[in-house]
Give the backbone structure.
Amino acid sequence: MAPRRSPTLAQAAVARETSLTSRMTRWTGTAGVLFFVALAGAILGLPNPPGTDASATRIVTFYRHHRDAVLVNAYVTEVAVIVGLAFFWYLREYVCTVPENRRLATLGFIGGVLLAVSGGLSAGFNQVVFDGVKHLDPGSMQLLNTLGQDQTNYLGGIGVTVLLGATGIAVIRSGVLPRWLGWLGMVFAVGSLVISFIGLAGIGLWSLITGIVLIIRAGHLTTTPRVSGPPLERAVGIPPLAGP
């Protein structure tokens, strides 16, 4: 007669798996909410800079009057980049809990990296403008203003489109998150190609909603009892109990 495996071992392993899943889900959701807060601070913390067609005199005047705000905005943008990268990576790991989503989730993370590079460039341009407004000529300030807007806007728009497009397809196909979140992401992904600000506002709103959904889901994972059995034991690599 084959020896029976104690059910306590299987239950402990399933409980450990539930705890890890709940923790990852909660961290992913929290990172999404924090990214929204940091991104909103970066967007709203600085008055709209002059457009790319503004005169050099107007550009210099603007940055002289808002010099301190430009520096603060650079630091807030750096925080948004760091928190955003953490959220994008945790989100990739969560979407990859469905193995078929691995390629799309990785492509989405690459889009997040492009968005982060855009944010890093934006912070760098703000730092250069903060230092240069005191001694650079108006023509150089006009060039920096144009580069700081056009280059970062287009790169950020591409990043948002790839991130939300790939992740949205994975969500719609697998249901790893509510499918309406996937469709919402697709809308923002398309809008980001047309107007970059739609993508920037869209990724912030989508991250906030996704974060809240995941935090609520983590609470359900913690409070809902898990029943052990052969399917769950196989999921955590435990052989089924042997019969008499």
Remarks:
- The longest helix spans residues 7-44.
